[in-house]
Amino acid sequence: MDGCDVADRPNYPFPYHRGDALEYLAALIASGEIRRYAFVHASPPCQHGCALTVGTNASQGWGGTHIDLVAPTRELLDRTGLPYVIEQPNDRAKIRKDLTLCGEMFGLGVIRHRNFELGRWTTEQPAHVPHRGRVRGYRHGRFYDGPYVAAYGNGGGKPSIPELQTAMGIDWTNVREELTEAIPPAYTQHIGAAFLATTALEVAA
What we know:
The chain is an alpha/beta fold. The chain is 32% helix and 15% strand. The chain has helices spanning 21-31, 51-60, 70-80, 161-168, 176-181, 185-204, and strands spanning 3-5, 16-18, 40-42, 84-89, 99-101, 114-119, 137-139, 142-144. The strands form three sheets. It has a four-stranded mixed sheet with strand order 3-4-6-5, with helices on one face. The chain has a two-stranded parallel ribbon with strand order 1-2. A two-stranded antiparallel sheet has the order 7-8.
């Protein structure tokens, strides 16, 4: 499960390349090394289309200009010839919502809805499990309790590092920024298992 990120990620538990992910993918394609892989999972930066950027931050004049990297990511992924997923939050990102996953589907302590565009393969959408309550924390000066924690930011009753680790199902880092940026491993495991099941059915047929 090789990874690539422009930031240094010493806690990443698998082989890792530091650099621009699009440049790295283009180099793998050009060299033919991409054939070492069977599947690609891409998570382009989501700030361009996430609710916070296009909503509160934009209305207050906060934040900067964010580039939409979904289209160039898709173009390179199509060039690999491999099956893939593109992950984005549940907001205005320009991807097909072929698959939507939620933490409650896996008994996690976060909601963390994420959409996935599937390339060169398909799978069924699992049923969305009703949420058991609110996300714990402050909203407009009022504190709300609930069974989920807010896996983003620092203030407003945000969870501790141990709470975040437990809620996300992550034990490989204790860095808050990495925890709040991460996708719960249960999502990737589900996608991997679904892809392998699809492949097995194709072979059997």
